[in-house]
What we know:
Blueprint: H1 7-15, H2 30-40, E1 52-57, H3 60-67, H4 75-80, E2 83-90, H5 97-100, H6 107-112, H7 115-139, E3 143-147, H8 152-159, E4 164-173, H9 189-192
Antiparallel strand pairs: 1-2, 2-4, 3-4
Amino acid sequence: MSLALDPAAQALLFTEARTANTFSDEPVTDEQIQAIYELVKYGPTAFNQSPLRVVLVRSEEGRARLVEHMAEGNRPKTASAPLVAILAADNEFHEELPALMPHFPQAKDAFFSERPVREQSAALNAALQAAYFIVGVRAAGLAAGPMTGFDAEGIEKEFLDGDHKLLMVVNIGKPGEDAWFPRLPRLSYDEVVTTV
């Protein structure tokens, strides 16, 4: 292969990394999460808009409120993970653009003055950042369990405001016993890539 990333790093981030379904009780620290953020914040987004927002659920009370809105099959995973992150898109991200694009502060009004435009852009770019976040969790030597099986309206009402749209819930921690399902197939290069 002609990758600059060494095989051990490739395995940690991609080839051996898996979605965890069980977790050990080893805690995930604020320092680990901050280190993850400090790494993944450099992933590109359009206009450097950075619309991802993260709600960390640590308390028993918060966990109970979240588990109530998870799909039945996801409840045990969310209840037992050391840390759970709610990932959302901030539809008012444009308010930060003058600071994030000091060379073009008028982008805020020139491109994002209308809410539907912001919502579409926030959804795409926050999804990119959510993917970076998952890879960052892996880079920290932790396992991520991203999920979309939940009552989105319930979670948004419980944890977010009207300016934030839920993307996913991610369980985070060291993998527990029988954490992995068998790896599923992937499409081949020729099935995905076309040259014109």
